[in-house]
Structure formats: C-alpha cells, structure tokens
C-alpha cells in the first residue's frame, strides 16, 4: 500500500512539474492588440490602433539569437459625442520593424532592445518580462519602455493566483495579477502568461504612454488561436480570425525600418528612399517638416515623447511612430 501511495505521489509531483514547465516566446506566434490614446488636446480626441505583432527572421549577436519583431497596424478615430476634428490619425502600415526579442529560458526572462551593436550584452534595463521564482503574493515586473524613467522604475503587478493554460499542446504558466500601472487607463485584474505576455498587450503595452489603454485581443499559431475578453477571459478562437493584419492602404508590404526607437539624437531609415517627411507630436501638432532627407535625421530638438512620422517615397505615403527620450 505504501509503495502504491508513493508511486501516486511521485506521479503527481512530476505531473505538476511538467505542466508548469517554462515556455519561452515562440517565433511562430502572432499577437493582435488594440491600443487607444489621445491625439489632441480636445476632450474626446482619441484614436484606435489595431495592431498585429509577429517575428520575421532572427539575428545572431554575441552568442545570442535575437528574434526580429515587426508590427502591422490600422488606425481609426474614436467616435465621440463632442465633435473632434483636430489631431492627426496615423496612416496604416505593414511590417514595420519594432525591435529585437531574446529568450533566456534558463533564467525565465524575456529581453527587448530596439538596436543591436557589435557584441551586444543585454542588461536588466532590457528585461520586459521576468518570471523567475514567482509565487502568489510576489510582484511580477512588467517593463514599460516609456515609464522606465519614472520614480519607482518599471511597473510591478501583485500576483493573486497562478495556474496553467493549455495553448498549442503546451502548458503555459499563467499569473493572475493586479494592474497598478499609472500609465494605463485600464485597471483591475489582468493576466500575464509565460511565452505570451501581458493581456494589456504583449508588445504594444510596453510602449504605452500616459492616458493610453492597450489590450491583447487574441494570439495565435498556424493551427491554434485564443481570444481574450476584458483582459481575463480566454477562449478558443479561429486561427484565421486571429491572423496578421494585411492588405492595408497607404503602405506597401515591404519591411521598412526606422531606428533606433526610442531615439536620443537621430533616426535612420532603411529600405526606403525618403523624398519628404512630416513629424507630429502626440497631440497632432506638426513639429518638423523636411522636403529632402539625406542620411540620418536629427531629432535632438524634439522634446521627450511619442511622435508620428509620415514619409513620402515615390508618390507613396508611409507611416511610423517613434519615442524621443
């Protein structure tokens, strides 16, 4: 009898351990998010961003494999009872380079950087998710690029409960947490899932600024998809319905890079010949305009914040955004 009980107990231990095995970010995953932020000083001037994030290729650097993250997005003005005609609505774009993502499976961390220099070594400032040795009652760090300089540093979620979530035949540890971010309009309970990220938006939420509301709507792989409602309700969805945003107007499906992002001094354009450009601040005010662009563009004169960039190349308009530190 003792041997039977011992065998059952051993099975339970190994069963729980297996189901809680750490799952890193998978290069075949697609994330669909919605972001919502003010674009003008008007009381009701907000814009919706419907965005897809996915990986295209990788780069080897200093012994590490960095996944290359790209974003496609469509924008629309939010309906409002008070007429709002000012503020610029960004142009749609496809396959714009966002940055590099590195899995550290041994230490259960995910790193992010917008640029890679020779022999690059990530530091704690590059950590966007840290799942190492987390238990109920602990704080789960969620690194926001735009709030890293605020008092207290990155946002910390208090862990309320931990369970496992099955996605694409693999169990992912799921943390139920209290969202205490001062930079998100959404509040209350959200989830953070190993290998998937926050239901505030796995990637777009790390760029969210003040008075923003970002939300992960669904995530998918070629044959599996999950939809999320109100940050907390997970349900099986159609992989086709959670596919990548495509066939957007105003932007050719080419991989165009504007980097570094965030930026301190100047930005560089890759895979595009910029004939002219305009830069707008978060309130839609034109802050810079150039009829010709040769080489890197200096943005040292801009104040810290989020900016929208419209570029014209061969009679086609391209859009992007960047953060000035």
Structure description:
This protein has a 9-stranded antiparallel beta sheet, with no helix packed on it. Strands 7-8-9-10-11 form a 5-stranded antiparallel beta sheet, with no helix packed on it. The N and C termini lie far apart (67 Å). 6% of the residues lie in helices and 47% in strands. A hairpin with a 2-residue loop joins β8 and β9. The protein contains 1 helix and 21 strands. It has 325 residues and is mainly beta. The protein folds into 2 domains: 30-236, no CATH class; 257-324, Immunoglobulin-like (Sandwich).
CA-based gyration radius? 21 Å
Query: Which regions are unreliable across 5 or more consecutive residues at pLDDT < 50?
Result: 1-19, 145-152, 247-254
H/E topology pattern: HEEEEEEEEEEEEEEEEEEEEE
Helix content: under 10%
Largest sheet strand order: 6-5-4-3-2-1-12-13-14
Give the total of domains.
2
> How many strands, which pairing sense, and closed or not: the largest β-sheet?
9 strands, antiparallel
Structural class: mainly beta
Number of strands: 21
Which descriptor suits the 3D outline? Answer: globular
| Count of separate DSSP helical elements | 1
Instruction: Compute the average pLDDT.
Output: 77
* End-to-end C-alpha gap: 67 Å
**How large is the share of residues in beta strands?**
over 45%
